[in-house]
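Q: How would the structure tokens look for this protein?
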Amino acid sequence: MSPPKEKEREMRLSAGCELVLEVDSPYPVPLILMLSPSTSETQWLAEERHTLTPQVPVREYIDSFGNRCQRLHAPPGRFVITTEVVAETAPARESAPGAPLNLVAELPDSALQFLLPSRYCPSDLLGTLALEVAQGYLPGYDQVAGICRWINQNIQYCYGTSDTSTSALETARDRSGVCRDFAHLGIALCRSLTIPARMVVGYLYELKPMDMHAWFEAFVGGRWYTFDPTQAQASGGRIAVAVGRDAADVALLTQFGPALLTEMRVWVERA
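A: Here is the predicted structure in token form.
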């Protein structure tokens, strides 16, 4: 695929992460990694490097959402995974106030799965809240922007108030969480209004504190747009690594045995 249009690739970012595992097993532990971005209409993957210490064989495949995944076996003891990428992406998020709601009958087949309730986004249980939050906004982009505004103003960003089992329903009740919880709630409220929405994980330039980040995309006006309810105004400088229905589909690391993640380091800089 060719690089994005010039206006979309004004920012060149160098990003990466390092994962340190302790494998407490006499046998290698199977892993699935989801650490490799793909070139798309909004980003161009210019360089990529992966380092495994110790080195082991790796096989890559594409999952049902189009994400690049790697299969490997982590050997016993200390195992380090390092991924480094250089990507060209838009310095500002595209927006489209007034973009209309797409009727379900007009949606592309690939978007339909992002209308359905999922493990962390029980949209069928949040319909009343969605109608309240979206009241007064034009159907489509403006409703999604209103949802993000409401989450940003009413949900407290606070570490330790949620865990990997927390759903959008619990976030709406407890009014606190972290980026993944904000994204789950935004996704669930959008789906309640028959707006397809999907979760994205990746890198965000100048995120503080630096870590992997989660946001969401909504399908309105005939295409996907980026929304980030953790920010009052969603910024650009993003490298999307994976998309899915919710966090269950976009885990950076999935293990099938006793492997403890002891360290994780993330960086994003101007290339």
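The longest helix spans residues 141-154.

The chain has five helices and 14 strands.

Upvote if useful.
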